[in-house]
Amino acid sequence: MKRYISKIFAGLVLVGLALPGISFGQNADEVFRAAGSPHNPKVNIAFNRYYTAEGLAELSKKIADAHPDLVKRISIGKSYEGRDIWMLQVTNFKKGNPERKPAFYVDGNIHSNEIQGAEICIYTAWYLTENFGDVDYITEVLDDRIFYIVPTINPDARNNYMKEANTGSSPRSGMMPFDDDRDGLVDEDGLDDLDGDGSVTSMRRKSDYGDFIIDPLDPRKMIQIGPDDVTTAQRYELLGSEGIDNDGDGRVNEDRPGYYDPNRDWAWKWQPDYIQGGALKYPFSVPANRAVADFVLAHPNIAGAQSFHNSGGMILRGPGAEEDLATYNRADLRIYDAIGEKGEKMLPGYRYLTVYKDLYSVFGGELDWFYGSRGIYTFTNEIFSSFAYYKNERPDRNQSYDFDRELLANDAFTPWAPYNHPTYGEIEIGGFKKNFGRATPGFMLEEELHRNMAFALYHAHHMPKLSIDKVMEKDLGGGLREITAIIKNERLMPTHASQDLKYKIERPDYISIDGVSVQAGMIVEDLDLGITTEQKVNPAKLEVANIPGNGTVIVRWIVSGRGTPKITVDSAKGGLITR
Amino acid sequence: MKHNLQKLSLLVGMFCMVAMAWAQEYTTLPQQAQRLRNLANSSNMASLKSLTKTLGGKDIWMLTLGKGDAESKPAIAVVGGVEGSHLLSVEMALRFAEGIISDHSDVLDNTTFYVFPNMSPDAYEQYFAALKWERSGNARPTDDDRDGRLNEDPFDDLDGNGMITWMRVEDPTGDWITHPADSRIMIKADRSKGEKGMYKVFTEGRDNDLDGTFNEDGEGGIHFRKNLTYEYPYFVAGSGEHSVSELENRALLDMLYTKWNLYGVFTFGPGNNLSSPWRYNRAGASKRVVTSILNDDAGLNKYLSDIYNETVSLKNAPDSGEQGGDFLQWAYFHFGRLSVGTPGWWVPTVKDEEGQAANKDKNREVNFLRWAEQEGLTNYWVDWKEVNHPDFPNQKVEVGGIAPFVMNNPPLAKIGDAARNHTDFIVKMAKMQANVQLVNLKTEAVGKGMTRITVDVYNGGTLPTHTEMGTRSRWLQPVKVELSLGNGQELISGRKIQTLRSLDGDASVQFTWLVKGSGTVKIQAGASHAGVDSQTVNLK
């Protein structure tokens, strides 16, 4: 009977997935809008659970199918195991040239066990598309900007994390096989899920010489015996993560799938493995990373970027490595600080930090490549922290156990149970499951996704927004006119980050005039004092190094002829506008 | 009959090789491919494959020289054409391959060579083009001055001689003067000696885009030896948008990273750590990002350098032309291999003749002109000739100078024994390679049915199994010592698998095991780049 019901349920789920998402999920009479959320979306998605690579691919397809004018779903490349790296391009495709809109890039899950980022990405695409037309701000955002959203850039190992023997912190790597213990064999001694609970937990053994006892008030918990403690309780020793010595070399779990770190594979100040553990042969050795890099190199309109990791509740900026300190200059840090500090407010429990001094000093990270190599302001969020359990800045050290019991109905912990181990004999296996500790628990997940998305949208809000604010004409006599135009950027980010200007990463912005005969062209340094710098060559197309954030650039032409001038601003990161 | 045919084709092949080896002109890419095919067809010790095609559609060739199970023998990679304008380096790599097959095939009993003769074929072709200029970049279109316009300011052949040389402009604000020993050669004025500049010097061409800089963004491309990861130069013309971005760089590295048997890399190119070795610098060696050769390796480099100077007998080498992103340094600093390189040849120092002004500062260009004259070279110099230059309407502009390519790529008749001597040196290096052996095997009966086995793992070579840098790399295997048990046998003491980070030349480490049971066990020791030895042991 039970099995019969579950089959029906599976059938319903399948039908649900197969339904074209064009119709609304619910009869409009049946729902009432909660502020800030789509109340009757075309695509219904449960945001209190996680999805496998295939689940994410299916969700992204449903979103794309339901909103053909707002979403293009493309594969930017293949993972090592041949899965598509799906990208959702989200904008109002009916308005403007999507390739020329300022773009915001988002990805998640580069570390395979750090899963929430993928759901944040799906949530973001869903939220933007479902609110388009209903919420003016979102409509405007999709009219003006484009989002390049890649839910997972490590789909192979995401599935490995979910389906195979793992802790909450493994595999982190991707699935390319390597000989971690350098014994000539590859991935021959990974973790083992000996008790079959789907997670790699811990092993303990009764031992007269052990340093631990069971907490008499909570049998899940082990207490360490101090040097002065006297105990009559049964002593235990801890034997590490669940596993066996698969290759018989006298070591347990020493050669797992991988190991490399896909976030040490990016080309800015890249260093080899002996300097930066986890690096591979050369930058972009990981196929998915190469796909992202190639895409970014081909899309100079990307002005902001965000990658999602877990955990610890952090909004991180570079530099990743202390040696790279000089790359992050003062002008750009002002912009990072403004966005990062806003993030601290939007994401309670999160702190705005700098990788090299607050986390670790590492080379080859994604955020450093985006900024150092492309001049794109980029943050990495470490999703979720223990603050979330009881919204408490000073958490009790036992709170994980309390939370499991009080709010998760003991679902997060596998109780200790006996096991006969081939090397260690009679042992016990138990502990927190892999989906607890780093992955946000289900009932809190939607809030986590929403707040992180809101932070990314705030960052995207401050990408350059250009307008030709004023055009002034003055008759100079003798058939000459002076045309002065004020180009305004009403947002925080300049069209060229200071790093970009330093190395001329992106071409200058072009401000050009058509329809008249140009005799001279110049940049106006001071409008009142009439101080200008003339561009002697090709004055009809003025080259401007930068249009500053919350600022203006003033240009002037001396023209002849009666035509009405048409002015065009052509900026890689600021877009293409005419007046 | 069949046998005879084979012999005949071998003879024909040998003849072609000899004919080619004596070629006096630099070979075109199709001729190179033919030379490589001839070698591969004429000998079962040589096999040829194309790793990839460049953006310009040119093959990157890999020639494997080896006998039997070549992949399991310690190997050296020999690489030419790392600098596209150094045609000689390609010739040297080709002659090395031909020389091994014709004169040194015995070395293949113990060593395999992977020869990559030309890593810059796109650039190499410029030598044969209608307009000759020293090109380093491949066929990728690049915005060298990063101004948003592509190839908008190339060289211009102002004097119409089919070569790009130099322009000098008479101008009191210039920094250049003529050399006291040879007024054809331009040098920078030394203000500290009261010298005043009289010329400006540019490469030959116009400021086509009127941006005030001459010839800063012409055709091509990314330089093979500016695109690797060690000290990669960011945002520099010719380096690309990121390291290892180019097909040829990636193809070579992808191949090298599969060759666990590689212990050495020999590069023909501008970098030279053989005429004088790299120096150890404590501060550079102890930083996290290492910038100095490590101490032990400096000793090794010095040792090889001494042997090189004895073998090759070229004196007064020009300063080593290493640069960020190059291959010679990458092979050591990031690949952990023993990495040595040399241009293979340079202009010999000419003595001042009577009546000639002394070349006091040993100016290399002055020396080159004197040598070229002595040797009767032609077309190596373009006399300064006045031209009307639209960018300098009221100034005297002359075009002239040393012809492109000639300083590093002499007529092949002039290189003498250089190719043979370098082949000899590489063969010497191969004969010094690490050679892990099991020696002094001892078995003793211990108690009831137990045997104690003792053996020395010995490196019979002169070179260590690992450079000091190599011990840090995950891309070199440690020396692995493994005891394999049979049925019913039990290891009482000792480990089945143990590893050594490195074993110096002529050094040994003793291992011991206590095994219970009867029959035989197998001991194996080594690493694919350092030789592997195994022995079967009868239990007592």
UniProtKB/TrEMBL annotation, chain A:
<keyword id="KW-0378">Hydrolase</keyword>
<dbReference type="InterPro" id="IPR000834">
    <property type="entry name" value="Peptidase_M14"/>
</dbReference>
<comment type="similarity">
    <text>Belongs to the peptidase M14 family.</text>
</comment>
<feature type="region of interest" description="Disordered">
    <location>
        <begin position="161"/>
        <end position="184"/>
    </location>
</feature>
<keyword id="KW-0862">Zinc</keyword>
<keyword id="KW-0482">Metalloprotease</keyword>
<protein>
    <submittedName>
        <fullName>Peptidase M14</fullName>
    </submittedName>
</protein>
<keyword id="KW-0645">Protease</keyword>
<feature type="active site" description="Proton donor/acceptor">
    <location>
        <position position="382"/>
    </location>
</feature>
<feature type="domain" description="Peptidase M14">
    <location>
        <begin position="49"/>
        <end position="411"/>
    </location>
</feature>
<dbReference type="Pfam" id="PF00246">
    <property type="entry name" value="Peptidase_M14"/>
</dbReference>
